[in-house]
Design brief:
Blueprint lengths: L1 E3 L6 H12 L37 E7 L4 E7 L4 E6 L2 E6 L7 E7 L6 E5 L2 E5 L5 E5 L7 E6 L7 E5 L2 E5 L1 E8 L7 E12 L1 E5 L2 E5 L5 E5 L7 E6 L7 E5 L2 E5 L5 E5 L7 E6 L7 E5 L2 E5 L5 E5 L7 E6 L7 E5 L2 E5 L5 E5 L7 E6 L7 E5 L2 E5 L5 E6 L21 E2 L2 E4 L10 E5 L4 E5 L2 E4 L6 E7 L10 E5 L2
Parallel strand pairs: 34-40
Antiparallel strand pairs: 1-3, 2-33, 3-4, 4-5, 5-6, 7-8, 8-9, 9-10, 11-12, 12-13, 13-14, 15-16, 16-17, 17-18, 19-20, 20-21, 21-22, 23-24, 24-25, 25-26, 27-28, 28-29, 29-30, 31-32, 32-33, 35-38, 36-37, 36-39, 39-40
């Protein structure tokens, strides 16, 4: 999966940043007013000074970072434990096998500004704004090399790769680029759109383009050499992003909320329902029967889409800051909340989402990707930040769950002994306090706990963290 975030100098983003810089609170524009509004701000920096100092919450901790350059896009290779971080005019390749200590393996410059990343089969496909599409081989992470490029005429803002083709949202339209020969990518087709192509999702023979003030455009790519628009639905707001699930497209329509559009007949896409959120929809993730919306100043909104014709908000959590993006894994939604960092929201009960963790990142959290227990945050000028979320508190289990932990005394003084696992799997365990905060990484053998305050602690194996259950209670006394 690829996390793509947008922090470019675009009209409404700049409008929002100008309000932050001035400390002015403004009301939400209604969907019907949006098409008549145009904001142009010249020379405004997106870098805001005076960010708050980073702090742990009860259930999140900082484990590592790579702060050397502005970050607005992150892609992951979980198989090889690699993170690819877009940083201004280049990309860092990081080894994150030990998340607490990300190691730079290499870096490679690009001719433009890295706006979007798509990782597939040891190659990075880079939406490089004015420099078009760049293709970078990372087969050898220590020596990435650009193998080819296609300099699109517009501004490459987003990219999706399916089969032998890359589909690039290029400002004024959709570019279809053959990548059969990665060394010589070539545009084979183009479909101009009337708006400003921000994002693209490709399903089957159709590309669905979020076209800003021109809504959703449906483009047939059955013949990649001749992509042609077969239908459209002009949403009332600004189509910022799109997710296509089943026969429906879910459009993040900024001030006009979430729009649900039936694409069962691609030639006649039709809005079947909408939910007008109180804020500005910047991103949407659809999981099962729910859409999770990053709603700007109004935080995370949870919308039931069980009946797509009648999407209805069932719950919300008003995060501090400006919700730019959201990723949902299991029972948790990870929200990139701008100046207020990473927020972790439990959505186990969709009607009552509740914050169970946060970390106040040093800059502006603009996007987030999640793999296992770790959240990788594109934190603007602070670069890549890596955080671990280890569950909403702890609960002592009925049976030990750490392989190799045999029943033994629960009362220790200065040394806690961790037996070697009986299986051949790597063993990793943590010591948590009663609130769920990780206080120590445990190794096989003797562990010095003399510096810990007397009290109740819990031992939990790393592989069990997603279940948020302690495997053994330990009492430290003096």
């Amino acid at each position: 999966m690829t996390a793509i975030v947008r922090a470019d100098a675009l009209e409404l983003d700049l409008h929002r940043e100008s309000r932050l810089a001035r400390g002015v609170s403004t009301g939400k524009l209604q969907g019907g007013d949006m098409k008549s509004v145009s904001v142009l701000i010249v020379g405004l920096s997106l870098v805001l000074a005076g960010t708050a100092a980073a702090q742990d919450s009860l259930n999140c901790r900082f484990v590592g970072n790579w702060p050397f350059g502005q970050s607005v896009a992150v892609a992951l290779d979980p198989v090889r434990d690699l993170a690819f971080v877009g940083s201004g005019g280049g990309i860092y390749v990081l080894d994150v096998s030990v998340p607490a200590f990300p190691v730079k393996l290499s870096e490679i410059g690009t001719r433009g500004l890295v706006q979007g990343l798509c990782y597939l089969n040891n190659r990075l496909y880079v939406a490089d704004v004015a420099a078009g599409l760049r293709i970078i081989s990372v087969s050898d992470p220590a020596h990435p090399v650009e193998v080819g490029y296609c300099d699109t005429p517009g501004n490459a803002l987003g990219v999706a790769v399916i089969g032998d083709y890359a589909y690039v949202a290029d400002g004024g339209g959709l570019r279809v680029i053959s990548i059969t020969d990665p060394a010589h990518p070539a545009e084979v087709g183009y479909c101009e759109t009337p708006g400003w192509a921000f994002g693209v999702a490709v399903i089957g023979n159709y590309a669905y383009v979020a076209d800003y003030d021109a809504g959703l455009r449906v483009i047939s790519v059955a013949d990649p050499a001749h992509p042609v628009e077969v239908g459209y639905c002009d949403t009332p707001g600004y189509a910022w992003g799109v997710a296509v699930i089943g026969g429906y497209a879910y459009v993040a329509d900024f001030a006009a909320g979430l729009r649900v559009i039936s694409v069962a007949d691609p030639a006649h896409p039709a809005e079947v329902g909408h939910c007008d959120t109180p804020g500005y929809v910047n991103g949407v993730a659809v999981i099962g029967d729910y859409a999770y919306v990053a709603d700007g100043v109004d935080g995370l909104r949870v919308i039931s889409v069980t009946d797509p014709a009648h999407p209805a908000e069932v719950g919300y959590y008003d995060t501090p800051g400006y919700a730019y993006g959201v990723a949902v894994i299991g029972d948790y939604a990870y929200v990139a909340a701008d100046l207020y960092g990473l927020r972790v929201i439990s959505v186990a009960d969709p009607a009552n989402p509740v914050e169970v963790g946060f970390y106040d990142t040093p800059s502006q959290a603009l996007g987030v990707a999640v793999s296992g227990d770790y959240a990788y945050v594109a934190d603007n000028t602070a670069g890549l930040q890596i955080y671990q979320f280890y569950g909403a508190g702890v609960e002592e289990g009925d049976k030990p769950q750490v392989s190799g932990l045999k029943p033994q005394a629960t009362i220790v003084q200065s040394v806690l002994y961790l037996p070697e696992a009986t299986s051949h799997k790597p063993q990793a365990a943590s010591l948590l306090d009663a609130s769920g905060r990780k206080v120590l990484d445990l190794k096989v053998g003797a562990n010095d706990v003399s510096a810990l305050a007397p009290g109740v602690y819990f031992v939990r194996e790393a592989q069990a963290q997603a279940q948020a259950q302690a495997v053994r209670k330990v009492i430290v006394q003096r």
